[in-house]
Amino acid sequence: NAGVTQTPKFRILKIGQSMTLQCTQDMNHNYMYWYRQDPGMGLKLIYYSVGAGITDKGEVPNGYNVSRSTTEDFPLRLELAAPSQTSVYFCASSYRDTYEQYFGPGTRLTVT
Amino acid sequence: GQNIDQPTEMTATEGAIVQINCTYQTSGFNGLFWYQQHAGEAPTFLSYNVLDGLEEKGRFSSFLSRSKGYSYLLLKELQMKDSASYLCAVMDSNYQLIWGAGTKLIIKP
């Protein structure tokens, strides 16, 4: 099993550009999450999904969008990138909400 | 508001024992998680407590007191590879994880 995979690993965006961060899991987990991690701060939940076709906002959803058309994939879309979106983005999945979350390797994004 | 507090940094000696504390104030409680995160890597799961008491797993143990809003992670027989950040996270009433900023543990020979 590959677990949770994310692409790309690194990306530099100019202000106003858009991009999609890809996330795929092969563990047949229903729950998937997107977090951002800024230096000295805890992980912040951006969006989450409890199954295909179902998504919901987390603590910091502004400037982002998600979709969940399959169990495996949970892409995160950044529209009109801003410097405040410079961060490390982690995708995670779990069997259920109270079960451990498995994290992807992360995407390090810089917006200049 | 919701808040998770843990020390920013701790230093310990190889072979020793260290206790990392976590206090929390959240809207509801559905369990407390500890994760380990090496620099530049993703968090990995260490433990989950939902009932009061001590859970032991090899060299790592985690304790929870729900009435005090308090948990600790105990690491025994420290090894150099234990140098990492340790993240405390509480699952709130909406079943969302609220994360602390993490404790950076430095192990010295």
- Sheet with most strands of chain B: 6 strands, mixed
Q: Let me know the average pLDDT of chain A.
A: 96
Quick one: how many beta strands of chain A? 11
From the alpha carbons, calculate the radius of gyration of chain B and give it in angstroms: 13 Å
Q: What is the succession of H and E elements of chain B?
A: EEEEEEEEEEE
Overall shape of chain B: globular
SS summary, helix count of chain A = 0
Compact overview of the structure:
Chain A is an all-beta fold. Helix content of chain A is 0%, strand content 49%. In chain B, strands 2, 4, 5, 9, 10 and 11 form a 6-stranded mixed sheet that branches. In chain B, strands 1-3-8-7-6 form a 5-stranded antiparallel sheet, with no helix packed on it.
Commentary on this structure:
The complex is a heterodimer of chains A (112) and B (109). With 112 residues, chain A is mainly beta. Chain A is built from no helices and 11 strands. Chain A has strands spanning 4-7, 10-13, 19-25, 31-37, 44-51, 54-57, 64-66, 76-78, 87-94, 102-103, 107-111. In chain A, a hairpin with a 7-residue loop joins strand 9 and strand 10 (102-103). Chain A is globular. The N and C termini of chain A lie far apart (36 Å). Chain B has 109 residues and is mainly β. The chains are: A mainly beta (112), B mainly beta (109).
Give the helices and strands, then pairings:
The complex is a heterodimer of chains A (112) and B (109).
Chain A: E1 4-7, E2 10-13, E3 19-25, E4 31-37, E5 44-51, E6 54-57, E7 64-66, E8 76-78, E9 87-94, E10 102-103, E11 107-111
Parallel strand pairs in A: 2-11
Antiparallel strand pairs in A: 1-3, 3-8, 4-5, 4-9, 5-6, 7-8, 9-10, 9-11
Chain B: E1 3-5, E2 9-13, E3 18-25, E4 32-37, E5 44-49, E6 53-57, E7 60-65, E8 70-75, E9 84-91, E10 97-99, E11 103-108
Parallel strand pairs in B: 2-11
Antiparallel strand pairs in B: 1-3, 3-8, 4-5, 4-9, 6-7, 7-8, 9-10, 9-11
